[in-house]
Amino acid sequence: MKLKYIFQGLICGVLFIVASCSLVKDPLDTYSDVTEGVDSAGVNVVFKDKAAVLSHLTTLYNQMRDRQEHWYLDLLLVAEAHSDNAYAGTTGAEVVPFENNSIEGSNTVMNRDWNRYMEDVARANRLINNVDSVVDNSFTNTQREEIKAQGKIFRAMVLFDMVRLWGSIPVITKEAGDITSETIGDVYGDYFPAQNTQEEAYRQIEKDLLEALVSAPNNNATNKTLFTKSVARTLLAKIYAEKTLRDYSKVIQYCDAITADGFDLVTDYSDLFGMNATKTDAKVRNTKESILEAQFFTGGGNWVTWMLGRDLSNYGNSFTWAKWITPSRNLIKAFQDEGDQTRYSESIVYYQTTWSNYYPAINYPFMYKTRSAYNSIIKFRYADVLLLKAEALIMGTSPNLSAAADIIDRIRLRVGLAKLPTSVRGNKDAMLDALLKERRLELAFEGQRWFDLVRLDKVETVMNAVFAKDSGRKTLVYKFNTDSYLLPIPQAVMDQNPNLVQNPGY
After folding, report:
1. Which of 164, 221, 228, 418 has the smallest CB count inside 10 Å?
2. Which pLDDT tens digit goes with each residue over 453-467?
3. Angle of the 401-414 helix axis to the 428-442 helix axis, nearest 10
4. Can you give the pLDDT at residue 41?
5. What H or E segment, with its residue span, contains residue 96?
């Protein structure tokens, strides 16, 4: 097989051949040398027809369902256990460093994630770069543009996770060519790329999303698994809140556009994460609050459940060993101090265990937002968008504290909490604190907390103080500082690519 049929994304050591099989029963796509490697005339092609393109698009979508280690499980480890929301959960040497701030480049979780993200980028590039060359009279230009738009949204989502984790990353938008004695000088940089700056990475994300808005599918109220215009707008709102591209007027613009797309808060918070009355299925899928979710059904359930707690659809399954991401005493106290029983009971549950790493085994807390093999994993939802708009109203060049308070009150009233007091509503610093607290309680165990602290420069203030206030946390190894905002680039990746430079502090 020629190298042009190999995913260029694993340029740092593992060349991933584009042939995929699922972690569950169904294959991700139908790739093979025969079906995609050649056309009917025997000429080498990437996709021989529209069906092959659609099969590869299915592969991208199935990444959201079948390969959750990096974009969900490990991202939660960073966002929750590396913040004040959770402890690592296990005593494993690769997991505990996220809790006690001792992560090094040798960490295998980081190495796995880097490689998985790069695989995802390569899959997206393969789609985006080759759709237009497919010879198929049934394949219209409109269909091609819609497919490319979905690929660009997927690539933007992957790059957004990567740039927030590692900062300067290689921004790869093309596939590598064949390596021969004649071409090695030309293609070497494709296989061993240098890093782009954070701004260059964000600009590529911005470009992908703005281009995708033209042709991506519209929001579908009955199918929230699609890379739609609404997903692109959500990501645009998020990137414009980041320090590198910060433009709070654009945050408000895209948050309002998501509202115009028809999203709203569900009335009952438990609709987002609950199960049906018989505990045989998710309570609701495709709620009006969900913007993008991965869905799971009978016969191909969500395996991440048994990494985080009990699978309530199979109560005793894989519950003999300690789980990741144990709710912290500090977070539990935050719920209790606020009197926030609704979100507390939807976020944290208690079981008896055979281990006592952080709590007595008789009454051990677990994160509860992924509670069965059939519950959706919600990647983006409207409450996050609303609170992001509140942040923009507080922190923008012309603050509107009253409008921001109205948004926070709306989130609070849904779960039976009182409105913010007047003393808070009129003070910018108090409003920012109220916003961060509301995001913490509303979005606990949804992969937001660490990135909120980084975005608003609260890491040192919050994290260096929490170890003294939370008796359950392991001893802090390194004090948090500005170098802590980014994680180390995996050492194995750096060893294989001499053009990469390690982040400061590692």
Report:
1. 418
2. 999 999 999 999 999
3. 30
4. 65
5. helix 96-100
